[in-house]
Structures are given as C-alpha cells and as structure tokens.
Amino acid sequence: METVKVSASKEYTVNIGTGFLSSIGEKLREIKNVCRVVLVSDDTVFALYGEKVKESLTNCGYSVCEYVFPHGEESKSFENYEKILNFCAENSITRTDLLVALGGGVTGDLTGFVASTYLRGVDFVQIPTTVLAMVDSSVGGKTAINLKSGKNLCGAFYQPIGVFADCETLNTLPEETFNEGCAEIIKYGMICDKDFLEFLQKNSIRDNIECVIKRCVEIKRDVVNRDEFENGERKLLNFGHTIGHAIEKCSNLSISHGNAVAIGMAIATKGAYETGVSEEDFSDVLLPILKKNNLPTTCDFSAEELYKASLKDKKRSFDTISIIVPDKLGLCKIVKLPVEELQNFIEKGLN
C-alpha cells in the first residue's frame, strides 16, 4: 500500500492500494478509537460496497448506522445536508464519534460539510470510490454543497482524519465515469509537473492507476500544505474550473464535473493565447491528451451564456475574476482578469 502524509491544519494519511475494503475496520482502528459511526453513501455505491464496509467496521467494534441518499449531483443540496444533520442528532452522535464518506465527490463534499458543522465539528473519514474523488475531492479539506445560484457556494475548509483509496472500487465504474476523473489527473500535469504531463502523453492512466493517483495526491498535498485556505497558490488547482462550473450550470448538471473541467481547460488554454494572456498556445499538447482519454474539448453554449454563469463563481472578487492559464508546458499561472474582459476571453477560447 502507498501512503501520502498531508500536514495541513490537521495531519492525516492518504492510503492508496487495492483490495482492502474488507479490512477497513482494522485500518480505521489505527487512527480512531471504537465509537459510533455514521456511514454516508449514495444508493449506487452502498449497494456495491456498503455492507462490506459496515461489516468490517462492526467486526472491529464500531457501532454503525447508515444514511443512504439518491446518487447524483442534485443530492449535494441544502435539503440533503439538513437531513443528514438531523439524522446525526436523532442517532445521538457526539463529538467523539465519526462520519465516514463512502463514494465519489458528491458524497465526500456533502459528508465533510456535515462533519464540519455538526456540533461545530466531528471527525470524518473519506473512502473515495471514483477516480475524481481519489485524486482530488477527498484530499485537501474542501467541503461544500451547491446552491441554486451555483456550484459549491456553501461550504468550509475541513480536513478529514484519514483517506482510504481502494483502487479495486474503480473496476465497477462505468467507463465514462472513469474517464471523467482523468480530467483532474491531466490538470495536475498541466499546472505544475511537466514530467508527469509527458508520462500521461505516453502511458495509459488505467494501466498505471495506483502510481498516477499517488502522484496526483502528492501534488495536491504539497499545494495544500503551503496554502490550505486558498489565499494564493491553491487557486492553481482550479484550472478549468471557473468555466467548467459555468458549463455545469448551463447544462443543468447534465454535463458531469469531469467533462466540464476538461472543456474548461481547453477553453482557458486557447482563450489565454488568443487574448495575449499566455505567450504560447498549449492546445496542441492538452487536446490530444484529453481526446486520448475520451474527454470532450468543446460545448454548445455561447460565450455570453458561459460568461453570465461565471459571474457568481467563488473566484470572483468585485470587478476581477481569477483565471488559471498555462504559462509554460507543465506550469500554470493565476491571472486576475477584469470581469468585463471575461466574455471575450471565453469567446476566443471557443473559436
């Protein structure tokens, strides 16, 4: 098993391996004493792995109750957040107890936000079951729910006490869902690791999944350790996300997060070059890697539609918005773009 230690406001270890879900209780005992556990999962993931995880926890002395919600981005809502809070209260969960997020990014974000606010903070553990969650959302402490106005507009920075990524769970992912997670993997190469980017050009992600996940977690770990609360460098991790979130909103969430980020990276890369924000056009590097992993690079929404949807993005500050763009191959930079220039930036990226 590979491990990566995160040293943010709370120290914890990300464990990466294959085939250890049936012994998750034993591994949890190494970091958390026997207590009551709320196992949070969506209906799809719980049907696959819920009973296995619950049995392992129970066999190690934990008292487990489960909260299962409908799968999908729509469940990352205030309504579901409130329901889980009430579920914890009704089951007399205390500050010494534990929440366990079993699933993808929606489950992790939702569970983490509940953990950060219930009784002003209880421990939680991430057991990610998708590529996207393993390499991105389960690490770094960002938790959130969506509002009608936009994605992830209500949340908190709150670190888990441990992350357990069992790559065996990826075998049950639909091919499209696996590919969506590859967008975040490619992002890491683009923002700060030329060697990793070149590795992705030449090699299959699926055939090298454990080492790929570890490298992504290492990159995110290093960024989070230096800038946990996104005051500067951590914004680089949002490459493709400002426009990506706008695409998700315009599609009423019918375009997945991973696909939207892939398109967002393509638009930002082309737009940066065409508007002179970047000296070189790295589209000839980025687009083939995206296409190799069956990811989209364009969408049917207009620049005006995406611009309007971007205006409520978290990265906007009064009359500017932070856009992440390539500066060199394997190195991105943060640009504060005047809001009135954003529509033209997107328009150039779409052409």
Q: Mind explaining what this structure looks like?
A:
By secondary structure, the chain is α/β, with parallel strands linked by helices. It folds into 2 domains: 2-172, 3-Layer(aba) Sandwich (Rossmann fold), CATH 3.40.50.1970; 175-350, Dehydroquinate synthase-like - alpha domain (Dehydroquinate synthase-like, alpha domain), CATH 1.20.1090.10. Helix content is 45%, strand content 22%. It is built from 13 helices and 12 strands. It has helices at 24-29, 43-59, 78-90, 105-117, 131-137, 175-192, 194-202, 209-226, 241-250, 257-274, 283-292, 303-310, 339-350; strands at residues 2-7, 11-17, 36-42, 63-69, 98-103, 123-128, 142-147, 150-157, 162-166, 316-317, 320-328, 331-338. Strands 1-2-9-6-5-3-4 form a 7-stranded mixed β-sheet, with helices on both faces. Strands 10-11-12 form a 3-stranded antiparallel β-sheet. A two-stranded antiparallel sheet has the order 7-8. Helix 5 (131-137) packs parallel to helix 6. The longest helix is centred in the middle third of the chain and has 18 residues, at 175-192. It starts with a strand and ends with a helix. The model has no long low-confidence stretch (mean pLDDT 97).
Topology overview:
Elements: E1 2-7, E2 11-17, H1 24-29, E3 36-42, H2 43-59, E4 63-69, H3 78-90, E5 98-103, H4 105-117, E6 123-128, H5 131-137, E7 142-147, E8 150-157, E9 162-166, H6 175-192, H7 194-202, H8 209-226, H9 241-250, H10 257-274, H11 283-292, H12 303-310, E10 316-317, E11 320-328, E12 331-338, H13 339-350
Parallel strand pairs: 2-9, 3-4, 3-5, 5-6, 6-9
Antiparallel strand pairs: 1-2, 7-8, 10-11, 11-12
Helix pairs in contact: 3-4, 5-6, 5-8, 6-7, 6-8, 6-10, 9-10, 9-12, 10-11, 10-13, 12-13
